[in-house]
Specification:
β7, α8 and β8 (184-186) form a beta-alpha-beta unit. By secondary structure, the protein is of the alpha/beta class. The protein is elongated, with a radius of gyration of 30 Å. It has 17 helices and 22 strands. It is an enzyme of class 1 (oxidoreductase).
Length: 527
């Protein structure tokens, strides 16, 4: 069997390749060269990128086998997430890999603007000792306004507090309690603009944040203010900033990001009070290694069919370790449900009972849907496109939990109502120290059968000779029975057989006829 192919589209640390391990065929390409990138995507399973590779709709359309786009960094401006989601492609990034590096660069730019470090350095190297020309200001007792109190903004606040600064913060999504823990005071944007001696921006670039600090905002600041943007280009209007500095309405600025990149010419470059760097926020050895290793691990999980909690287009959130063992079970229950029902339900209840409900098991709704559609549609079903497939086919899903599980420590039931009103249910649990996956219920009948790759599930009128006939027919076909169980209610019975190999459709039809089955289902979980 050939190995999954991982395409490295930009230079990444050696630790990234090491973290991928030996289970993949690794190829490299210059992702910035579209003529090279597009054909290279044709037969790859995952692509690892940084900021120079555009995974837009065209690139995604050229990647017929692609399952994962991994951005070794935080921003996803160069990935068309909607197109990836529609194609069932998981998008992952490394949201915490460069936060320390970005925070430290922001503080470096702030200090550089406060003390005129860049122009003094340039003058001295040019042979001019201009000590009196580059007088600066201290940070002690000054007010810094942090626009965006997320992970990076919080790190900046912690560090600037040590400088003895008064910290204001603007963030509509931050709580006063969080701000208080950081020694910051939450204020509205106008108040922050009016009071701050320094302003540092730490927001994502969105339609709402583009141009947030523009002409109108810059009319409200102190003329002595110094503004730092090490977040995303375009949030700070560069043309408006250049005019404000020229007119003496802003004292200086430190910029690591620009609305258009790469940028090598700008009116801002004419001002000695402006310090600029070419998007170096994540450019530390530590950040690059953390980002590469993090997304390599995510790729391993995703290509292994596992959930990746950090995937940006999969709604899972954090998954408790206690919940993870049940993921494979619930997905298999979804496939068993489809085999037994023969169709997709209009309403699916994921009924979880037992001690496990002390944890957040909402991810099992997504897992159940993935299993439900795996054997129904021709396209590959992923954790990304399973909700869309359910919506397209009018399948609503609901989570029901109850700490009381009856005979088992935990039990999960998929109960679906079909379009004609018929209710179908399958139940499963994990038993013993090895957490053996077992089918413990079908259609209200109690069972306890290990889940295997090949199973037969049939309902029939209980009478002598049925099981013997089934055994004889399978034996004549060379198919071995690994285990079986019958559950009876009055004269109706459910039989579940574990068999060692797949049962062909013609043989299944013969078996169904011989047992006069009300329903006869072949479960094939072998991938």
């Amino acid at each position: 069997m050939s190995k999954p192919v991982v395409l490295i589209a930009e230079e990444l640390s050696p630790a990234t390749i090491e973290a991928l391990g030996p289970d993949f065929e690794v190829r490299s390409v210059d992702g910035a060269d579209r003529d090279v990138l597009l054909p290279a995507l044709a037969d790859v399973d995952a692509v690892l990128i940084r900021s120079a590779t555009r995974m837009d709709a065209e690139a995604i359309g050229a990647a017929g086998r692609l399952r994962v786009i991994a951005r070794a960094g935080v921003g996803l401006d160069n990935v068309d997430i909607d197109a990836a989601t529609a194609a069932g492609i998981m998008v992952v990034n490394a949201p915490t890999s460069n936060i320390t590096s970005a925070a430290e660069l922001a503080i470096g730019l702030l200090l550089a603007t406060a003390r005129n470090i860049a122009p003094a350095n340039q003058a001295l190297k040019a042979g001019a000792w201009k000590r009196s020309s580059y007088s600066g200001v201290e940070l002690l007792d000054k007010t810094v306004g942090i626009v965006g109190l997320g992970r990076i903004g919080a790190l900046v606040a912690e560090r600037l507090k040590a400088f003895g600064m008064r910290i204001l913060a603007y963030d509509p999504y931050a709580s006063p309690a969080k701000a208080g823990q950081l020694g910051a005071q939450l204020v509205d944007l106008d108040e922050l603009l009016a009071q701050s001696d320094f302003i540092t921006i730490h927001l994502p670039r969105t339609p709402e944040t583009v141009g947030l600090i523009g002409e109108e905002a810059l009319a409200k600041v102190k003329p002595s203010v110094r503004i730092v943007n090490a977040a995303r280009g375009g949030i700070l209007d560069e043309a408006a900033l250049a005019r404000a500095i020229t007119e003496g309405r802003v004292a200086g600025a430190g910029l690591d990001v620009f609305a258009t990149e790469p940028t090598t010419e700008s009116p801002l470059f004419e001002h000695e009070s402006v310090v600029v760097t070419p998007h170096l926020g994540a450019s530390t050895e530590e950040a690059q290694e953390k980002a590469g290793v993090a997304v390599a691990r995510s790729v391993r999980l995703a290509l292994g069919g596992e959930l990746v909690p950090d995937a940006v287009n999969v709604s899972t959130g954090a998954i408790a370790e206690e919940v993870r063992p049940g993921i494979a079970l619930v997905e298999k229950l979804g496939r068993i449900f489809t085999a037994v029902a023969g169709t997709v339900p209009a309403q699916l209840d994921v009924d979880v009972r037992g001690e496990i409900t002390a944890h957040d098991v909402s991810v099992w709704k997504l897992v159940a849907l993935k299993g439900l559609f795996t054997d129904v549609v021709e396209d590959t079903v992923t954790y990304v496109n399973a909700p869309a497939l359910a919506e397209q086919r009018g399948c609503a899903v609901r989570l029901v939990t109850d700490p009381d599980s009856g005979d088992f420590r935990n039990v999960t039931t998929l109960r679906g109502t079909l379009a004609d009103g018929t209710v179908v249910s399958v139940s499963g649990t994990l038993t013993g120290p090895k957490m053996v996956e077992k089918l413990v219920g079908v259609g209200g009948h109690d069972l306890e059968v290990p889940i295997s790759d090949h199973m037969l599930v049939f309902e029939y009128s209980d009478r002598p000779g049925v099981i013997g006939a089934v055994g004889r027919i399978l034996g004549d076909a060379g198919i071995n029975i690994g285990g079986m169980q019958v559950s009876r209610q009055d004269d109706r019975a459910i039989g579940v057989l574990n068999v060692d190999s797949a049962v062909p459709p013609a043989l299944a039809a013969e078996l169904s006829e011989v047992v006069e089955a009300k329903t006869f289902s072949v479960v094939d979980l072998h991938d």
